[in-house]
């Protein structure tokens, strides 16, 4: 959600800044803008509702600028419009870009409007610029005015600001929203993600939470909100710029679905690595776990929900799965022997990060982050982390990262079991079954056109129901979520055994049901549920495995994923649901990689 790039340099950074924000498009946005300071101390502002590539067309390439800020906006306060697009400028004096939400912006705006200040947008962000200008008008130097403004703000924010009267300083601040400094030979930069700056430098320093910085061409001054100086920790990154390359695919989501063969092969053929900051007695930690709490949002939550079934079977340990946005807001208890697992693709998910920070204030045994971005906030603040190693995921709807989460979670369960259980040998069969997973995924992908044909029959449906039981219920949730995200069809998931407790009332001959029926001890119960749906005229798409063959009825369309294993079947069946969602969205003509109203990295509550 939203992306910031800003820089101050001895070199012309005109093209550099615009090229850099292209690497933040994956976060999700609806408009983009840039503001540069010219040689006459005037702001040169370009804004566009739409793609960054179109913004690039309206920025004057012939001009040379040495100080500038740029932004991709994901609307929170105010509609998607040129008026609400960042940067926001007050009196050609202060220009700002902002990620996050300013909770007290209305109070600030009303106070300033009552004494004559004017606002031109509906955004909360504009209040930052006008309040800074107010304090300058009260006689404060810009740096002091900016610092005083930051102290007045309530909410989450990452901010970059420039003053038209000072071409030698860039002002930045963050509170519960990430910013990274990029330190170059001829200047210094800030961005929401180091990926935006990798073509400029490989020397980075992540701003500590609640920091304020004055960035100059040859100097960086960082302090906390109280004014205490902070010495930035500079790291030379080993991350290599990954050029977006669709190869022969039309969409990144489609490409990332197919990359799951390679991602799974990499993960199942290597030991699970728990990266820790300190030397820890992992043996003691694993043996003393009495409860596991998994905290996550969206697809990551669904992955955690599957893991709940795995952990309770493998470890016989109570496992609770919590929605991160709810975790801090109920009277939860953490105990001295709780293992808490935080799952996030981006590592910047605001609710999950806030839950991690809150959990640190309470008793617990240990906390682990499972993440696809090893330099992210959640990884940096967790006690240990597991790297998903899925590679950059561009499509907003998670595919390969979700599969990587599932693989890492079951391997974590096996790892803990190996420390705790005397009879671990009985679980080694699961390790061998995991080795078969890449081929099982490939087998589904080779049947892609069969799934596409099914999608063509139902893409104009308005309501679709997903059903599953046990580990396949969270996969039904994930299938419904994936379909909602990219097709905009109202899709909901239920435990199949709950049909008679309400959902059966929705069944008629217009109802489309996607039912996951694997070969397991619930097969006969699932068949009975399918009969109940068919008896009421419902139409079923049956996703089953090679062993669990089903008799066909006219109201049933069947897709066979091939031979699966008991524990890994949810992973394999989910691949079929990803392909189904992709083709339904494709036939509906939707923007698959950047679906409406959604962002890849949810950095605000």
Describe this structure in words.
- The strands form 4 sheets. The protein has an 8-stranded antiparallel sheet with strand order 3-2-4-1-10-9-11-15, with helices on one face. The protein has a 7-stranded antiparallel sheet with strand order 5-6-7-8-12-13-14.
- Helix 7 (260-268) runs parallel beside helix 13 and helix 7 packs antiparallel against helix 15 (437-445).
- The chain is of the alpha/beta class.
- It is globular, with a radius of gyration of 26 Å.
- The chain is built from 19 helices and 26 strands.
- The protein is 34% helix and 24% strand.
- The longest helix is centred in the C-terminal third of the chain and has 21 residues, at 400-420.
> How would you characterize the largest beta sheet?
8 strands, antiparallel
Strand order, largest beta sheet: 3-2-4-1-10-9-11-15
Beta-sheet strand percentage? 15-25%
* Structure class: alpha/beta
Q: Ends: how far apart?
A: 11 Å
| Low confidence ranges | none
Number of strands: 26
The outline comes out as globular
Helix count, DSSP H or I runs of 4 or more residues: 19
Indicate the radius of gyration in whole angstroms: 26 Å
Mean of pLDDT: 91
Q: Roughly how much helix do the residues carry, as a percent range?
A: 25-40%
């Amino acid at each position: 959600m939203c992306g910031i790039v800003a820089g101050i340099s001895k070199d012309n950074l005109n093209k550099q800044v615009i090229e850099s924000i292209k690497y933040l498009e994956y976060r999700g946005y609806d408009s983009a803008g840039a503001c540069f300071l010219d040689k006459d101390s005037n702001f040169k502002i370009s804004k566009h509702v739409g793609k960054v590539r179109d913004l690039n067309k309206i920025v004057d390439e012939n001009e040379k600028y040495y100080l500038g800020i740029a932004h991709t906006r994901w609307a929170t306060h105010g509609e998607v419009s040129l008026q609400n697009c960042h940067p926001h400028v007050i009196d050609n004096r202060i220009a700002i870009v902002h990620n996050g939400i300013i909770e007290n912006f209305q109070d600030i705006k009303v106070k300033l409007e009552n004494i004559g200040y004017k606002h031109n947008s509906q955004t909360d962000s504009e209040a930052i610029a006008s309040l800074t200008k107010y304090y300058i008008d009260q006689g404060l130097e810009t740096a002091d005015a900016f610092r005083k403004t930051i102290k007045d703000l309530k909410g989450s924010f990452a901010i970059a600001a420039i003053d038209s009267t000072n071409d030698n300083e860039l002002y930045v601040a963050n509170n519960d929203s990430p910013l990274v400094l990029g330190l170059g030979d001829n200047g210094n930069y800030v961005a929401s993600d180091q990926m935006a700056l990798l073509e400029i430098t490989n020397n980075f320093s992540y701003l500590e939470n609640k920091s304020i910085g004055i960035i100059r061409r040859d100097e960086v001054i960082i302090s906390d909100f109280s004014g205490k100086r902070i010495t930035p920790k500079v790291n030379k990154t080993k991350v290599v710029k990954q050029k977006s390359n669709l190869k022969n695919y039309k969409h990144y989501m489609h490409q990332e679905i197919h990359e799951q063969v390679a991602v799974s092969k990499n993960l199942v053929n290597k030991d699970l690595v728990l990266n820790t900051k300190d030397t820890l007695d992992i043996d003691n930690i694993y043996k003393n776990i009495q409860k596991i709490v998994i905290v996550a949002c969206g697809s990551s939550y669904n992955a955690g929900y599957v893991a709940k079934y795995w952990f309770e079977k493998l470890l016989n340990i109570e496992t609770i799965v919590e929605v991160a946005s709810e975790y801090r807001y109920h009277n939860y208890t953490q105990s001295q022997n709780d293992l808490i697992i935080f799952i996030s693709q981006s590592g910047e998910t605001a609710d999950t990060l806030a839950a991690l920070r809150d959990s640190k204030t309470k008793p617990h045994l240990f906390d682990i982050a499972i993440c696809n971005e090893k330099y992210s906030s959640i990884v940096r603040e967790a006690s240990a982390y597991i790297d998903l190693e899925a590679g950059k995921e561009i499509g907003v709807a998670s595919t390969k990262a979700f599969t990587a989460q599932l693989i890492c979670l079951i391997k974590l369960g096996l790892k803990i079991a190996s420390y705790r259980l005397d009879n671990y040998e009985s679980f080694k069969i699961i390790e061998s079954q995991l080795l078969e997973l890449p081929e099982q995924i490939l087998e589904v992908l080779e049947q892609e056109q069969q799934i596409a044909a099914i999608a063509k029959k139902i893409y104009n449906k308005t309501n679709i129901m997903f059903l599953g039981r046990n580990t396949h219920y969270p996969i039904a949730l994930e299938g419904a979520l994936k379909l909602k995200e990219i097709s905009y069809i109202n899709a909901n998931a239920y435990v199949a055994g709950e049909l008679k407790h309400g959902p059966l009332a929705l069944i008629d001959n217009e109802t489309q049901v996607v039912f996951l029926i694997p070969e397991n001890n619930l097969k006969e119960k699932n068949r009975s549920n399918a009969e109940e749906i068919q008896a009421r005229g419902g139409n079923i798409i049956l996703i089953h495995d090679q062993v669990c063959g089903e008799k066909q009825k006219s109201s049933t369309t069947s897709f066979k994923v091939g031979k699966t294993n008991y524990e890994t079947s949810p992973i394999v069946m989910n691949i079929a649901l990803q392909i189904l969602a992709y083709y339904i969205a494709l036939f509906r003509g939707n923007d698959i990689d950047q679906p409406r109203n959604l962002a890849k990295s949810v950095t605000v509550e």
